[in-house]
């Protein structure tokens, strides 16, 4: 489980770095359009594919930290046993959903490689297969994260809220050096 959390954190950091680079690209494109009347070719295509990648890279950590969107409408009317049963069902359905998405996206990813699928015209062509395979991989990882949360919940290893495996990084005692 710890290695899964580490990978999820690295994927999240990669996503954050990617967003930062996209922000720089947008700024450069706007400045190029405004100051030099010459935009950066392919900005639209890069952004279009990157939004998908950035979103799906954040999925596993959102699952492990209990940050996925949820409502307590039904949960508020159930007792502890009903709440736990509902939570276990949610873990299972989440795993099935993302495994299903990965399964459904696999043929399109293979076709993208086979056909040399790309977006954009002219000088800038952005191949779609890296994002398609990233989508498959992150959906599989999300399914594994849901199964891991299901197992942890069955073993009683989740926090009191029943939804997070991630503990905050402990603070150093006053005067202690954590380096």
Automatic annotation (TrEMBL):
**GO BP:** C4-dicarboxylate transport
Q: Where is the Tripartite ATP-independent periplasmic transporters DctQ component domain?
A: 22-155
Transmembrane segment boundaries? 7-27, 47-67, 88-109, 129-152
- Topological type in the membrane: Multi-pass membrane protein
* GO cellular component labels: plasma membrane
- Where in or outside the cell is it found? Cell inner membrane
Main localization, broad class? membrane
Q: Which top-level group of life is the source organism from?
A: Bacteria
One MF term from GO for this chain?
transmembrane transporter activity
Keyword Transmembrane helix listed: yes
> Which InterPro entries does the record associate with it?
DctQ (IPR055348), TRAP_DctQ (IPR007387)
What are the record keywords, sorted? Answer: Cell inner membrane, Cell membrane, Membrane, Transmembrane, Transmembrane helix, Transport
What does the subunit section of this Swiss-Prot or TrEMBL entry state?
Answer: The complex comprises the extracytoplasmic solute receptor protein and the two transmembrane proteins.
Record function comment: Part of the tripartite ATP-independent periplasmic (TRAP) transport system.
Family named by the database record: Belongs to the TRAP transporter small permease family.
- What is the protein name for this chain? TRAP transporter small permease protein
What species was this sequence derived from?
Thalassovita gelatinovora (Thalassobius gelatinovorus)
């Amino acid at each position: 489980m710890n290695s899964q959390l580490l990978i999820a954190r690295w994927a999240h950091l990669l996503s954050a770095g990617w967003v930062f680079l996209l922000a720089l690209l947008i700024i450069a494109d706007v400045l190029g359009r405004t100051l030099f009347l010459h935009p950066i070719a392919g900005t639209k295509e890069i952004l279009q594919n990157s939004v998908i990648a950035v979103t799906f890279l954040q999925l596993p950590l959102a699952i492990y930290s209990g940050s996925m969107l949820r409502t307590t409408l039904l949960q508020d009317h159930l007792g502890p046993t009903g709440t736990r049963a509902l939570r276990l069902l949610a873990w299972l359905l989440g795993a099935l959903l993302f495994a299903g998405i990965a399964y459904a996206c696999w043929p399109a990813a293979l076709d993208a490689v086979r056909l040399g699928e790309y977006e954009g015209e002219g000088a800038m062509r952005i191949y779609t297969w890296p994002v398609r395979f990233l989508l498959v991989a992150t959906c599989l990882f999300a399914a594994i994260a849901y199964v891991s949360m299901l197992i942890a919940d069955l073993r009683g290893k989740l926090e009191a809220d029943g939804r997070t495996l991630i503990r905050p990084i402990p603070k150093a005692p006053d005067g202690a050096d954590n380096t």
